[in-house]
Amino acid sequence: MKFYEICFSPTGGTKKAADMLAEKLAEEIQSVDLTDYKTDFSGISLEEDDEAIIAVPSYGGRVPETAVKRLSLIKGNQAKAILVCVYGNRAYEDTLVELEDTAKAAGFRITAAVAAVAEHSIARQIAAGRPDPQDQAQLTDFAEKIREKLSSGSTAEPAIPGNRPYKKAGGAGMVPKPTRDCVKCGICAEKCPVQAIDREDPHKTDSNKCISCMRCISVCPHSARKVNSVMLAAVNTMLKKACAQRKDCELYL
């Protein structure tokens, strides 16, 4: 039996939350990075007695389309799956239910689901520092309850909240651009999950490919990529009231 952590985490918040669960559920973890465009996901095949955490961020209340496409290529073969959606303290809306449908279509059996909060990938002051020690304590408690269910052999599926059909997905919205500090090192282009940045000239970004994941900003060693300051201010204003109250992690068994 193997334990997999299948994760789409452009800026690290989703993986941090998934790690907190995975480290309490298994000693050895096989990592599958859904942001790695070079991976042949169709070549990944689990076995029935395997277990997996499948973790994604919530983008406007939906699973990122890129994550859906790549997860759909993996062969679940009835392995047990713990679903994790991570959001920036606003709302995760239809993310978990869409992830449930995607995982089932890929052949996974859903055992549990978790909604966790991480620092907002665009408005970084929203939920800053999360998941924090309080979140870790909750996720550790969740992991113990999930392990108890797995050990019991229960095949009951959790009642996961969300709507079908899902809410309409938003557009890319905010496309990061290079500043004068850009030295064209190419790290952003190499790490972009969807290859939206020109490898020869990182000043060129294909706005039709960009998914506004903010990976390029998080990996730039020179802090030389930014989003439009006016748009960022508008996002901060919009989110400030909706995200004012701390939201706890949620478990569905």
UniProtKB/TrEMBL annotation:
Keywords in alphabetical order: 4Fe-4S, Iron, Iron-sulfur, Metal-binding
Molecular function, one GO term: metal ion binding
Function, in words: Ferredoxins are iron-sulfur proteins that transfer electrons in a wide variety of metabolic reactions.
Protein name: Ferredoxin
Higher taxonomy: Bacteria, Bacillati, Bacillota, Clostridia, Lachnospirales
Superkingdom of source: Bacteria
Region (Disordered): 150-172
InterPro entries reported in the protein's UniProt record: 4Fe4S_Fe-S-bd, 4Fe4S_Fe_S_CS, Flavodoxin/NO_synth, Flavoprotein-like_sf, PSI_iron-sulfur_center
Domain 4Fe-4S ferredoxin-type: 172-202, 206-230
